[in-house]
Amino acid sequence: MVDPHHLAHWYPTAAYLYVLGLDALALAWEYLRRHPDYRLDWLRRARRPDAAHRWGLRLLEDPALDARDAQPAWLPGHAAVAQLYPDADPPPDAVAFAFWHIPGHKQLIHDGKGLALIARSPGHCLRFVLAPGLEDGMAVVYAHRDGAAAPARSHAPDAALADAKPRPTPAALLELHTLQALDATLTGASLREVGEGLFGEDAVADWYSDGGLRSKVRRLVHRGEALMRGGYRRLAQLPPLEKGRFAGDAKRP
To answer: Which of 36, 108, 29 has the alpha carbon at shortest distance from 70?
Structure first.
């Protein structure tokens, strides 16, 4: 039976269903915001104004906000972020930037350097960087950081939602279980308690040291800790930390 003192917020799987629709950058935030040292940096941010760069951010974001409400200003470089520029020489059938026609819940964020647009719909998250001078109704061109300019029509926001999937993928379920297992261990839950919370009492009825379920739970816990303590940088397409930097974080229990 799960210890009631360890239940906290992690036990109801329904509380994690929003994770199924997150993209890589949003998942990176979910792992980063759980890092104890990140939370400490947030609390003392007035004394450490440059702390954000340590974590791959331009500005520190409140770790109490999950990916549905947070607006983390990541350092640039993610291939999923399209850059939008006014078309200086548009053809007659040029695609116009139509802010209100972009599907989904929209957020405009200024990260201290530029304006970004995030549009979230079920199963999809579109991210754009808006060039200075771009206005609603202007002819627009799209570019990606890999240097390959793309025709605006093929990367229009409407087209990007055409392949939305109604069911969660195995990869999305893995992230849900990983975050739930990570939260459980951060509250002090045992592996068995984590297994019961994720898969039910019946699943752990035959719990033993070398059982398949116990191994699965252990892998989820280890994966969550690894992503929280630096692996999130891969999701955000940030360079890994140089060897020896912040080494204390990895050793901290």
So the answer is: 29
Among candidate residues 28, 60, 24, 3, the one with its CA nearest the CA of residue 229: 28
Burial of 167 from C-beta contacts in 10 A (0-12 / 13-18 / 19+):
exposed
**Which CA distances in Å does 28 have to 8, 94, 95, 156, 212?**
23, 35, 32, 25, 28
SS3 227: helix
* Nearest residue to 177 (alpha-carbon basis) of 13, 49, 54, 59: 13
Q: Which two tokens stand for residue 143?
A: 């570019």
Whether pTM > 0.85 for this model: the answer is no
Residue listed under structure tokens 């202007």: 138
Q: What is the pLDDT along the chain (253 residues), one digit of tens a residue?
A: 555 554 567 888 899 999 998 999 999 999 999 999 999 999 987 677 678 989 999 889 999 999 988 988 888 767 778 888 898 888 888 888 888 888 888 888 786 677 888 887 776 778 888 888 888 888 888 887 664 444 444 345 444 444 445 577 899 999 999 999 999 999 999 999 999 999 988 888 878 766 688 899 999 999 999 999 999 999 999 988 766 555 444 444 3
* Count of beta carbons in the 10 Å neighbourhood of residue 235: 21
